[in-house]
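Record now logged underneath.
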Amino acid sequence: MNMLFKQTFAASVLATMVVTAAQAAPAEAPPAFVKRVADGLISRLKADQGKLQNPATIKAIVRQNLDPYVDGQAFTRIVMGTYANASTPAQRAQFEQNFRNTLIENYGSAFAKYSSQTYSMRPYKATNSKFPVVTIDFNNKGEKIPVSFQLSDVGNQWKVRNLNVSGIDLGLQFRNQFAANVQRNGGNIDKAIATFKPDADAAVNKK
């Protein structure tokens, strides 16, 4: 095997590996991913239902059963909006950390009220979008609350990059809240990041 052939062969193998990696996608179908996460969360809430008034317990549930499945970097860019491009990597990392911690408190308060709610999945409509959307209806005391999960492929694993609750785009509402906070802080991004508290209730109830 001469040197030219070796080089050509190696280049061909490398090119094949690059193309294969670029075309790789999560093996799990989007609806299966959402169902797995939802079932795991509900099972945990049922198992620990007697402890849901304990803040430490509810925070642990959210951190272990929901937080790992969130695409924090994508959510950060969505919420920061135009300020994401004007910020430094360190500022975005700080924003993501603060944002996650605040959402854990928000979701913790909601999950603490869990009382055996059920859900049903809507038929999944596959599209060519790189961000597939899966919608489920939560049954809350007879009221159906539609929640759409917009997903992103992170290292061949699906993660949630945005949520739509009852027709309300949470990422957009949180972006508006953050922009208002930047204005309140005179355009100071560091202060805006440090003081930003996303209000999930206000976002969902936005009409």
About this structure: The longest strand covers residues 143-153. The two ends are 71 Å apart (CA to CA).
